[in-house]
């Protein structure tokens, strides 16, 4: 097996030698943000394993989704010992719900040193965090200084006064494709945003909190346990959800 480089040795609780993966949404044969997903996969592979991923990932995805209408969740796995091959699995999936029809998520703050900048196949540390929470409650990862990082499967954003704040790509969170699509949409609309990590103790003054995810789209948060509650999604989350909804 090819040895894991220095970046992998600093990967925290995950085991990089088990590989990395991508998940993307396909709507009626059209992969969403495919180029962005492929760039992230190849960048992670090179950073972690010090070699190029040479597999025909685009072709493997095309073969897996051929003649399959509707919505699919596609997972692409790449292992360090086989840069010439990926495994692609496509499953039937429900379309993302419009923000206005969602019940809202409940998050519980969980203190951690860091999230993860890569999508590791080893999800044991995430499974342990999620298993410790009650059904229907998702983790909100917060660093020791009280700065928001991400959820275990989504990026997080906070809206206040029409301005979105989301944590920066400082090596402690995943560079989410839906997060980038959100920022691109804000740029296109000429809307200001802040790439500064919001503080947990600032949430009571926020107009809303929402998550962004490549499969689930924009999901609004109705409560951060012990911190803040909201009765309805913020208009910014509603607008972004509509903008990022598959056509």
Automatic annotation (TrEMBL):
**SUPFAM superfamilies associated with the record:** D-aminoacid aminotransferase-like PLP-dependent enzymes
Q: Which Pfam families match?
A: Aminotran_4 (PF01063)
Q: Which domain of life is it from?
A: Bacteria
Q: Name one GO molecular function term.
A: catalytic activity
Which GO BP terms apply?
carboxylic acid biosynthetic process
Under InterPro entries, the record lists: Aminotrans_IV (IPR001544), Aminotransferase-like (IPR036038), BCAT-like_C (IPR043132), BCAT-like_N (IPR043131), Class-IV_PLP-Dep_Aminotrnsfr (IPR050571)
Q: Which family does it belong to?
A: Belongs to the class-IV pyridoxal-phosphate-dependent aminotransferase family.
Protein name in UniProt: 4-amino-4-deoxychorismate lyase
The organism is Pseudonocardia asaccharolytica DSM 44247 = NBRC 16224
């Amino acid at each position: 097996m090819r040895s894991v480089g220095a970046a992998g040795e600093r990967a925290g609780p995950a085991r990089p030698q088990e590989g990395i993966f991508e998940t993307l949404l396909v709507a009626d044969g059209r992969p969403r943000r495919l180029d962005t997903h492929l760039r992230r996969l190849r960048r992670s592979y090179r950073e972690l394993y010090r070699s190029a991923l040479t597999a025909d990932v685009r072709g493997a995805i095309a073969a897996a989704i051929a003649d399959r209408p509707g919505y699919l969740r596609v997972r692409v796995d790449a292992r360090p010992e086989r840069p010439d091959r990926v495994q692609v699995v496509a499953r039937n999936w429900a379309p993302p719900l419009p923000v206005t029809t969602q019940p809202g998520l409940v998050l519980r703050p969980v203190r951690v040193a860091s999230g993860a900048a890569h999508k590791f196949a080893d999800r044991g540390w995430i499974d342990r965090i999620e298993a410790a929470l009650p059904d229907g409650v998702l983790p909100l990862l917060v660093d020791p200084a009280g700065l928001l990082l991400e959820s275990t499967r989504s990026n997080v954003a906070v809206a206040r006064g029409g301005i979105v704040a989301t944590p920066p790509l400082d090596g402690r969170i995943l560079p989410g494709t839906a997060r980038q699509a959100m920022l691109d949409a804000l740029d296109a609309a000429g809307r200001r945003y802040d790439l500064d990590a919001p503080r947990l103790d600032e949430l009571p003054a926020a107009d809303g909190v929402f998550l962004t995810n490549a499969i689930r789209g924009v999901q609004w948060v109705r409560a951060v346990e012990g911190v803040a509650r909201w009765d309805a999604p913020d208009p910014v989350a509603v607008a972004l959800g509509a903008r990022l909804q598959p056509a």
